[in-house]
Structures are given as C-alpha cells and as structure tokens.
Amino acid sequence: MGEVRLQKILSAVVSRRRAEALISGGRVTVNGTVATLGDKANPSRDIILLDGNPIAQNEANLYIMLHKPERVVTTAHDPQRRPTVFDLLPKDTRLFSVGRLDYDTSGLLLLTTDGDFAHRLTHPSHEVKKTYIARVKGIPGDEVLEKFRTGLLIEGRQTAPCEIEIIKKAPSQHGETRVRITIHEGRNRQVRKMCDAIGHPAVTLKRVEIGGVQLGDLKKGQWRALTGEELHYLHGIRAK
Question: How do the residues of the chain divide into helix, strand and coil, expressed in percent and rounded to 5?
C-alpha cells in the first residue's frame, strides 16, 4: 500500500469530518511530527499516532508484550503437550514471537502479527539489546566477570562483548548472587550457557527489557498492547 491522505486513513475508525478536526487540532503525529491537513502517510510503514496511541498500525497489526512464566514454551505447538505462550494470548490471531525464551526462563516476550517487524528486531545486524536479571550460584569474581564481558567460547563460537553487573552479592560461595546481564545476540539459551561457562550456573533467569522497552510491573501470564511511544521506538531501530 502506498501513501494516502491521513483523513482517509483515520476514517477507518472515525468519520472524515472528525478525522479532519483531529488533524487540525494537532492531535495526530506521523513518525513523531505533528500532522497537518493534506499530509499523506503509508499505514503499513509509518508510525501514525492519535494522542500518542497507534491508529493505523492497530488496524492491520497487533503488537503486544507478554510476561512469560517459567515452564511455558514459546512454540505454538509442543509435541510434549506442555503449556505454550499462545495459550495465554488472544485466540484466532496469527502472532509471531520476537525471539524466544526457553522453558525455564520468565520475562518479557514481544509478539506481533507483523512478520517483517519480528524479523527486523531479531536480525543480528540490528544488535537489539536484551537485559536479564539472573540469580547465579556462588559469587563471580572480577576475573570471570571480565571474561563474561569480553566474550566466551560457546560451542566453538565466541560471544560478542556484553554487560554484567552484580546487583546483590551472595553471603557466601554456597549462596546465590543476583546479577544484571545485557546482550545483543540471540543464540539458543545463550545467557544460561555463558553462566555455565564461567562456573556460576543460573538458578533463575528473567528478561526485563528489549531494546529499551521494559517489562515493568506486568504480572506473570499477563499481556498488554505496546504503547505508541514503545512502538515508535521499536519501529525506528535500524541496522548498524
């Protein structure tokens, strides 16, 4: 679909006269710029917001975040008949998960009906940062933390530089240390394998942020639509 007048795009949800009034009142933006009467946009490409909330995108696509619980798989169908994230989501909607979280990992999972959007956010060239909170066994020392940051050899391949910081240190080597880890790769079970590689396996792992979009206080098993601001940011991510 090419560019069409904003009035026509908005008329899918309000009357043409109402659409003109909203535009004239400065309540509609296109890619962050306040729109004026006569402006055109492409609803499949541009970020069109009314009072900061998405209009055109929600007519064609759905963008949501889910707080994935542990012991739930990300695939649509599981041969072992375990619960899947799609059991928690709107029915009869073809959603794509933006990356995955393993069975034992909880936290932020993005899902959408927009396949191009999902592909863009998961493509390695975009280096989208993902942040996790983990409880690991023992107390990682400065030397192993530095190895973690600079890269580890996992299954014959070096990991890219990343970030790790201690949030709360265990009282002893027999306890568990809470750490924050940020990576921009997406290998299978990468964070867990990196923790194993430094001798401090992850006891629990929770993803709390993707590309600046945060899980916040969304409860396990619950989902919500992404806000206009979150959509605007994620749609703006480009390859390095």
Answer: 25, 30, 45
Contacts of 196 (CB under 8 A, 6+ apart): 202
Q: Which residue has the tokens 């600079």?
A: 150
Q: What is the pTM of this model?
A: 0.76
CB 68: neighbour CB atoms within 10 A? 29
pLDDT of 56 above 80: no
The rounded distance, in Å, linking the Cα atoms of 125 and 199 is: 30
Asked if residue 6 lies in contact with residue 39, where contact means CB atoms within 8 angstroms, the answer is: yes
CA 108 – CA 167 distance, rounded (Å): 20
Distance between CA atoms of residues 94 and 158, nearest Å: 35
**pLDDT tens for residues 88-122?**
987 766 788 998 999 999 999 999 887 778 888 88
C-alpha to C-alpha distances, 9 to 2, 56, 58, 153, 154, nearest whole angstrom:
12, 7, 12, 51, 49
Mind giving me the DSSP string for 205-226?
Answer: EEEEEETTEE-TTPPTT-EEEP
Rounded Cα distance between 209 and 213, Å, is: 5
Catalytic residues: 102
**Residue 3 has what DSSP assignment?**
-
